[in-house]
Amino acid sequence: MSRIGIKPVQVPQGVKVTVGPDLVTVEGPKGKLTQSYISEVEIVVKGASVVVTRKSDSKQARAYHGLYRNLVNNMVVGVSAGFTRGLVINGVGYRAEAQGKLLTLSLGYSTDFGVAIPEGLTAVVESNGQKIVISGYDHQLVGKFASEIRGLRPPEPYKGKGIRYEDEKIRKKVGKTGVK
Q: What percent of the chain has pLDDT over 90?
């Protein structure tokens, strides 16, 4: 049995979960999310919880059991509380600015990057342009947008310059030593 898949997803007050033949819809105060699922698993709403079970013991059904439980859980948490992801910018002259739906990043290149913030997400620049906080109700979209921004200037291992996640630790390497 899947240790993750057998846990029921608790649905808080104000969140509505609707299950169709191949589609789960979760609606809450922050927004509405939908997710399709395969016929190997069965999703049932029981009172104030959602239970995901598998119809057979095939390898594919076992693989998708925990996956769909976590996807439904992320949808419920997203529409009720939301998700945030922090990015830290480190480097001399590196900074960020948010202007409406555009995020302007100055990352040491000859030109600045202008990144459009996707619909459903908000990006707030804090601490003098050195920290970006991305928030939204779709867990996948928040993570994807944060990784795209990090990919513009990943942290380098010698000085640590670049964009890193807030909880990421950079293992620094020792530089060259002088010849004796």
A: 83
